[in-house]
Amino acid sequence: MTRHPTRLSAWLAGSWSLHVVDVDGRSHTVPVAAYRPHSGETPARGVTAAVVDVGAGDEPDYRRTPVAGAIVLADGAVARLSASVLGDLADHVHPPEARSGLANEDYSRVWLDVPPQPSLETARRHGAVAMIEILHLSPALAAGQYTPHQQEHAALPTLHVDAEQGARLRSLLARGPLTATLTLTASRRETTVDYLTALLPGSGVPPPALAPTGAPVPAPTPAGPTLATGAAEPRLTPGAVLVATHTDGQNAVEENGGPALLALAEYFSRFPARDRPRDLLFLFSPNHMVSEVATVKPDAWLRGHPEIINNVAMALVAEHLGTMAWDDRGGTAAYRATGRSELVTVPVGHSDTLRELAIDEVNASDLTRSAVMRPFQNGLYGEGTFPYRLGIPTIAFISGPAYLVQVAPGDNLDKLDRALLHRHTLFLARMLSRMLALPTAKP
């Protein structure tokens, strides 16, 4: 294992609250759903100012409504989508009959940032001192949403309220002037955070033929792990497979790629090196949840490590395993479990061979409610985007439930199915075994 310190402009919220005084002089404490990450910070006493409703918070809204010195109230709209947005991009859905039902599945996701949440820079440029953003979600779904999760620091403290509290604030405003005290304390500091790599050496001799279609994961020959620890990256053999995830999520679903990779590393370390045709390099990125101006993202980090990318033939990236679907039917019902698993996507880029391999293994493993996807907007929907943008043939594994970036009591463990988590990890093991067996240097 090797630690690789890299810079991080850290921002950590401390406390947050919202109080308003109506036209009659009555005080109201307004429940806050969440703070907007990296938005800004206030003194401990908060900031007190008149509340001005700017609607969607677009540039024309500010031109019509003076906001200098005010706390603006703005809509954080959430597009009401169906899961067909994924089905339309899928090369293959398993089982095939699941595709037709995607149009009836709610896929309203605040983390998609569609449409983009109100611009803090625009509000600040027009003289606002803070923002109250109405997330148009039910209270249970709005609570703790850490969004937008890769925002640059904007120097405008912002709190989220749910749709019910947003309607309450607008009702108070309709009666007359409203004054608010908004508090969001936070610390900022320049520090470092570690990328972690772990090398599991192989024989460096790719086999002469592909593994049989649908082959089970073979039973390993007992052998102890041989992991090196040191300051320098151990030498990779050309043709290595990069196995990656991130380590800085908000709950047990956003951040369970790490345990999955540890399970894979432990399993494959049982094989003697001669039975592993390629090196496996496990990469744990600490910087998924921050913007590229606040740190060094994985694509930039990999470019700074040519000893890795020059020897990596392909990548497997895993995140968000074992998830069950919860929704509020596009805002028309109570937030609840749907009884089905969340749709899993298996995006593939830069390799027809890997795409065919992924489709075949999805079928062989009976990976239900899954979709093999094409790239979209120069990305692979998550952490797999970073090796993909470097031209590395990449298979990713990712789901995107409504609670993906939600900070919640119990870390959303109640929404994770452990048997499904195990099935997903077995799928990754089979997929990785077949990638190791590919006969060419690059697929």
Structural notes for this entry:
The protein has 443 residues and is α/β, with parallel strands linked by helices. It is built from eleven helices and 17 strands. Helices cover 21% and strands 28% of the residues. It is globular, with a radius of gyration of 24 Å. The model is unreliable at 208-231 (pLDDT under 50).
Give me the secondary-structure topology.
Elements lengths: L1 E20 L5 E3 L4 E2 L11 E9 L3 H6 L6 E6 L7 H4 L2 E5 L25 H6 L4 E6 L3 H4 L15 E4 L1 H13 L3 E22 L39 E7 L10 H12 L11 E6 L12 H6 L2 H4 L2 E7 L5 E4 L8 E6 L2 E6 L2 H13 L5 E4 L11 H5 L4 E6 L18 H19 L7
Parallel strand pairs: 4-5, 5-7, 7-8, 10-11, 10-12, 12-17, 15-16
Antiparallel strand pairs: 1-2, 1-9, 3-8, 4-9, 6-16, 9-11, 13-14, 15-17
Helix pairs in contact: 9-11
Q: Can I get a quick summary?
A:
With 443 residues, the chain is α/β, with parallel strands linked by helices. It has helices spanning 59-64, 84-87, 120-125, 139-142, 163-175, 257-268, 298-303, 306-309, 352-364, 385-389, 418-436, and strands at residues 2-21, 27-29, 34-35, 47-55, 71-76, 90-94, 130-135, 158-161, 179-200, 240-246, 280-285, 312-318, 324-327, 336-341, 344-349, 370-373, 394-399. It has a 15-stranded mixed sheet that branches. A two-stranded antiparallel sheet has the order 13-14.
